[in-house]
Amino acid sequence: MNLSERNFLFPVTFCSFLQRAFVALALTGFLTLPVLVAQDGKKADAAALKAIADAAVKSMQAAKTGKGGAAGDGNVYQRICQNCHGDKGQGNVQLRTPSIAGLPDWYVMAQLGKFRNRLRGAHEKDLTGAQMHAIALSLNDEQMKEAAAVIMKMPLHATQNTLKGDASKGLYVYMDQCMECHRYNGSGEVAFRSGQLVGLQDWYMLGQLEKFRSGIRGTDRKDEDGTRMREIASRLRDKDLANVLAYIAQLAEQYVGELNAAAGKGGSDGKSAAK
């Protein structure tokens, strides 16, 4: 049977081996063909897996060969990050990459640091995290700062309610579990090191909440923010997840335009979806 016509789900141990091999071969320059592995331990069609592998290898090869550009030349994001996250930071549902447009530079730097130090991306079921670990390792501090500065200047893409949750029910969950750290408008807070939510896709946030709940993310004691998020995520019932994400989409509709305007970011009406 043709590989492109099949779905694959490798055992966890084999998947873990392929992740390590994928990263090692990509960074050493020996990987020329896409490696098909399971997406975060779940079934994924071969076309999607090929796209994920292609984009990640392209980013890592750009960094390895120096094509990422030197800090200050404006090419770091273009050469390395946009392969997966898009030219406007809009993310890509096929690649399972989040919209990162408009994220504060301090938050981008913090997450890249976690990937570099394996506070994120260390779990054997976290394929996309493992890819980000490899990419973060390939960047020096100045390149990270360059990319973070470009990302921060991008207009936010408002969260959309694609999971069809009930925002009226999600309101109470958000107020009880999320608002203290992520603020009334979902913009996050540097004092709490809490991320901006209103620019992320609901399916991406759902995936991260599930990672926290299952222990794929947030189990390392050095990751204080992650362990706190894991505790909060463990309190949420399955039916709460889509609802609270629907409420975040409602916040995005209300506040993203205002946040973009306050930051002087043009070129977006604040309501564009991350494709």
Short note summarizing the structure:
By secondary structure, this protein is an all-alpha fold. The chain is built from ten helices and two strands; from the N terminus they run βαβααααααααα.
Task: Identify the overall geometry.
Answer: globular
Question: Going by CATH, what is the homologous superfamily of the largest domain?
Answer: Cytochrome c-like domain
* Largest beta sheet: strand ordering: 1-2
The top-level CATH class of the largest domain is Mainly Alpha
Biggest pleated sheet: 2 strands, antiparallel
The fraction of residues in strands falls at: under 5%
Protein structure class: mainly alpha
Estimated radius of gyration: 18 Å
What's the number of domains?
Answer: 2
Q: Quaternary arrangement of the chains shown? A: single chain
What string gives the helices and strands in order?
EHEHHHHHHHHH
| CATH topology annotation of the largest domain | Cytochrome Bc1 Complex, Chain D, domain 2
Give the total of beta strands: 2
Instruction: Give the terminus-to-terminus CA distance.
Output: 31 Å
Can you tell me the CATH architecture of the largest domain?
Orthogonal Bundle
Q: Averaged pLDDT, please?
A: 81
